Amino acid sequence: MEQSATGRLYGVGLGPGDPSLMTVRAVEVIAAADVIAYHSARHGRSIARSIAAAHLRADHIEEALVYPVTTESTDHPGGYRGALDDFYEEAAARLAAHLDAGRTVAVLAEGDPLFYGSYQHMHKRLAHRYPTEVIPGVTSVSAAAARLGEPLVEAEEVLTILPGTLPEEELAARLAATDSAVVMKLGRTFGKVRGALERAGRLDEARYVERATMKGERTGSLADVDPESVPYFSVAVLPSRVAPLTGGPKPASSEDPGRGEVVVVGTGPAGPLWLTPETRGALAAADDLVGYTTYVDRVPHRPGQRRHGSDNRVESERAEFALELAKRGRR
After folding, report:
1. For domain 257-327, which CATH number applies: 3.40.1010.10, 2.40.160.20, 1.20.1340.10, 3.40.50.12780?
2. Where are the beta strands (DSSP E) in the chain?
3. Cβ-count burial of 112 within 10 angstroms (0-12 exposed, 13-18 middle, 19+ buried)?
């Protein structure tokens, strides 16, 4: 007797929340699946299921994968991580039973399945055992930039994506050293993230996006947000520093006498790999670079930033020039 073929596993990205942002491929896979699986908290409500609800059928077998814990408080002998590992193993075993029976299983995931998604824990346990396809989805990062209506990164700018669960000192160092950034997983971490942005000197640039594309969406300046009102599904955004061509916020490089300053930084002995996070942050925030040409040339080029290299025998003239730029509001 021939052994029946195993089923196929799909990780289905649903996008940031608005069902109309699901891809055609995601809808096709859901329609063809035998089993629809989705993660939820203990209250039983699943955001992923609600996004895909219009495409679910009465004859779909549904597997609700309910997290046993949603905070780090647990009496599990292995602690929070142990409780989650056991849950992922049990959830994977439930899906494997369907796959072994020849059923097609679609695991629904908000955003993109492999971007901070619960699906990835199923993928790591099952993809090497069964035919698997991952359907990419629009991430909350892209949705947040779209809802703000501001470019996220341009030209040679660097985008850094951070979980808000990092220590405040680590967040501050990374935020100071990058061009653009998105900080995920706010909620209870909001106060710490706000503090890190302030320490990095970037609070004034920071934008806030809550429930992008979903009911209850809110956007605005992060500095104005009440920490008690922030849910988990919210992000902090540092948009592109490249000045807009028309309209929009006042460019960061506008000459405002009240914001000018001179910052003296050391660039280390041998280029970008030797820069400290504080130096990277100061260089990224600068409108103008003034210095010995050999040293200025070691600094990566940034769109809109002016470079003023000169001979190493004109120290006093360089200092005077830098002070004059600062008087005009340049950094």
Report:
1. 3.40.1010.10
2. 9-13, 35-40, 61-66, 105-109, 132-135, 159-163, 180-184, 207-210, 218-221, 234-238, 288-292, 306-310
3. buried
> Do residues 103 and 61 touch, judged by C-beta distance below 8 A?
yes
Question: What pLDDT digit, counting tens, does each position of 229-269 carry?
Answer: 999 899 999 999 886 666 555 444 445 666 788 888 887 77
116, two tokens: 């901070």
Whole-prediction pTM = 0.78
CA–CA separation, 148 and 205 (whole Å): 13
CATH assignment, 9-138: 3.40.1010.10
- Polymer length in residues for the chain: 331
What class, spelled out in words, does domain 141-238 have in CATH?
alpha beta
The neighbour count for residue 268, using CB atoms within 10 Å, is 14
Neighbours of 23 (CB within 10 A): 16
- Domains of the chain, by residue range, sit at 9-138, 141-238, 257-327
